[in-house]
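The record is given unchanged here:
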Amino acid sequence: MLTPATSTNREPSLDELRQWDREIVWHAFTQMAEYEPLIFERAEGCTLTDVEGRQYLDACASVWCNVHGHRHPRLDAALREQLDKVAHVTSLGSSNPTTIKLAKRLTEIAPAGLEHVFFSDSGATAVEVALKMSLQYWRQRTVPRPNKTTYIALADAYHGDTLGSVSVGGVARFHAMFDPLLFPVLRAPAPDTYRLPPGVTRENALAHYVRQMEELLAREHERVAAVVIEPLIQAAAGMIMHPPGYLAAVRELTQKYDVHLIADEVAVGFGRTGTMFACQQELVTPDFLCLAKGLTGGYMPVAATLTTTEVWNAFLGAYAQSKTFFHGHTYGGNPLGCAVGLATLDVFEEEQTLARLPEKIERLAEHLARISQHPHVGDVRQRGLIGAIELVRDRQTREPFPWEQKRGMAVCDYARGQGVLARPLGSVLVIFPPLSITLAELDRICTTLEAGIVAATE
């Protein structure tokens, strides 16, 4: 039974907040029958503080979006300054100087050739924009190819939770329920370098997975609009690391078979892999680059889909030709979000964020090498400042723990008790801190998770 609404003249008690949080707020990816409220009131740097004053080191960057830490003075000031001008204007037929400047900055730092920016409000919508733009392009270009209406995506892919992004997703536990609502896609195997198919080794994995992608494209390219891929890492799939060279090979294949490449860098963009964008590590320019999360340093819901002049030109014409991209988001290009996005890029330059990453990446590698020796650690994986530890029941056979046992969650529950906030992907522990993390904080995250593995698997 819910308590009556509080008077506007008083603050609710902690017990009321917990009750309302448990009974009114419906949390994402959370079984509400089991939910125990965890309510954060303040944050600074890489530390979150709950309503009772307990502090937690943020090991998951508030689900992979915080870059420069919480309450960064530069980002806070950008928001306050923009508030003194205007909080929001629509992007439907109008604009704002702050929005325009962020679009220009993105085209300057993105892979060469991505010269146009469409703003939306989340990673899923950024992908949805790319899917729709690609399909419409093939129908409107100088020599139309209207049969290109399907997509190739990887097994175990995750691209968000709108119907379009779920359709190209491939995580059955998340998406199977909604199958009647989804459009069909062609599925290529996830290029996993740990759980390899029979007869495939790490040494020949690249050739194996590229051959499978080419066989699919050779057979189906006449009806394929685009290949959708997370560059280098399939994040929500369990931090699956692709073999080096796979992204570049897929880019070559999409060009060979006249198919778009949609690069979903929502999770891996903005320095996470050691370069500003993951695509840059293999010198790839996709046809569409989807960005969100770290775009505003984790402050505001802003997303962007970047594309080429070739795509842009296919949408130009007289109004009566109906070539317009009839798609939009109320808060797309929101000036507050774009202001903090500009400040985020400024901080990358001012604090030399990327130049300071190698020492942190090396320290994470040292911790992972030690943790890899635990008898229930099947694999450790790393790309840049993203680390993953896969727990297994049997190290030799790679037999996983039954998912119902929630071993990964048990480790994170232990860590939470020690003041470290982490979130697993099943039995995969994820280390994904803000890029501003200190070496001492990184040490604490890793040693705490290591102790949690011992506690959860002994």
